[in-house]
Amino acid sequence: MVSVKTEVASDTYLVGIGVSPGISIGAITLLGHRSMVEDRPIEAADVEAEIERFNWALSQARKQLQEIKETVSRQPHLREHLYILDTHLLILDDEMLVGETERAIREQISCESALTKVLQHLRQMFENIEDEYLRDRQSDVDAVGGRLMRILTGEHERSITDIEQNTLIVAHDLSPTDTMQLDREKVLGFITDKGGRTAHTAILARSLEIPAVVGLETITSLVYDRLPAIIDGGTGVVILNPSKETFTEYLTRKQTYEYLEKELDSFRDLPAITTDKFKVALRGNLELSSEFPLARKHAVEGVGLYRTEFLYLGRSEPPGEEEQVATYRQILEEMQPHPVTIRTLDIGGDKVVSGLTLPREENPAMGLRGVRFSLREGDLFKVQLRAILRASAYGEVRIMFPMISGIVELRTCKRLLCQVQSGLQEEGIDFDPKVKIGMMIETPSAVLLAPFFAEEVDFFSVGTNDLIQYCLAVDRGNEHVAYLYNPMHPAILRALKTVCAAADQAGIEVCVCGEMAAEPLYTIVLLGLGLRELSMNPASIPRVKRVLRQVSRQDGQALLEELLALRTSKEITTCLEQRMRTLLPDIFENALI
Question: What is the layout of strands, in order, in the sheet containing 237-240?
Answer without folding.
Answer: 12-15, 237-240, 228-232, 23-30, 167-171, 187-192, 212-214, 17-20
